[in-house]
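Sorry, explain these tokens?

***
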Amino acid sequence: MFIKKLNLFIFIVLSLTFVIELPAQKVECFILKAPEKPFYNMKRIGVLEFDCTNNRHKSVVMTNFVVGDLLDQERGIYDQQGQWYGLVKSKEGRTFVKGVKTDFYDVIERDQLERIMKEQRLSLSGALDESSAAEVGKLLGLDVMIMGNVSYTHNDEYTNSTGSRCLKRTVSALGTIKIISVETAKIEGTRNAEASIKKTACDDNISGMPSVDQLADEVLKDLAHQFVGYFTPGYELIKYDFEKIKLKEFKDRSKEAMDFIEAGDLDRAFPIAYAMFEADSYNPKAAYNLGIIYEMVGSYEEAVEYYGIAYEIDYSNQQYQQAVERAKRGIELATFLEEVGRPVQPYTFMLDDVSTALAERVTTRGSSGDRVNVYELPDKSTDIAAKVPGGLEFKVIEKQGDFFKIQLRGTKTGFVHKSDVK
């Protein structure tokens, strides 16, 4: 019955309307990202002390940054304004993925690693080769050993301009990480990374310039995050180009869907987006929009389906192709998350309202303190079905003369006069 009503609705929409496409609207959120080089078969990890060639103390600092990033439960989520990593529940750091913490691996405690190293008469710092590292990993029952090296440099540049004396301080770092298989003693993965930070201060503010040591910590932390992200799933900020598609007769509903998405209310946006796709299922942008919503909540199989439809219709669009490939990697990631007991919490969108998602709406006049009469029949002399506050929006089921038949709460309906709506 629902399918028949939906098909009738789609037929009416296609018969009476045509599609107007407007520029894309950007929506930002954090999604789960598959790593550049997945190691989905490893569970237990040991991190050897990184060798910092120009500062021995930073070897310990760098190692702690790597371990800390591996143990971070919200890896990759950060405050976009402050640019610091960690769990953020504001709009600036929002994610719609539920149930996934990113501390996937069992990272061996440092004291256990040090004990074995001492027993084997090995140094914790960089002199270890791959074979020795693998041997230590075997004694601890590990899957892989992490090792690497980093270095950093700094440059202070003083300038005088417009009567001010200014200092520009630049600290740059580069390094390499190696992932050693304990079973084979071979390097299974390696990655180079670099990072830099610049600070400028003038006149009296020069004394408050962060020290080279402090800035070195910042760039080394950036390197650690890049290293861990190379082989470990995490969150990534993505800016979706969400396509605006407006049906002539229902343009307000399309705008409303985008407003819902920007506000983070995907439950209310989805039925509208789905109905628009059903109304014009050969429009690649409509399919692409559905793929975005599914990917935002971690439903990768559905994302692949709708991204695939968009790409099949418009195979020249590289954005659609990239979306398909990204969502396919997401399916592999989801399998890994299941295996480690960190599955994405299923997100169920309700389709009950799809057939009326693009329906006309009216808003009652007045404010929340006012009351508007809703009648049992399209006649003010009939019984009052409800008294509703002003300023509320209602779906229009049909129009009869000077009355709108509106959907009240639950299954109840009633009639409101045109003079009582905006």
The chain has a mean pLDDT of 84. Residues 2-26+245-339 form a domain with the Serine Threonine Protein Phosphatase 5, Tetratricopeptide repeat fold (CATH 1.25.40.10). The CA atoms of residues 373 and 387 lie 5 Å apart.
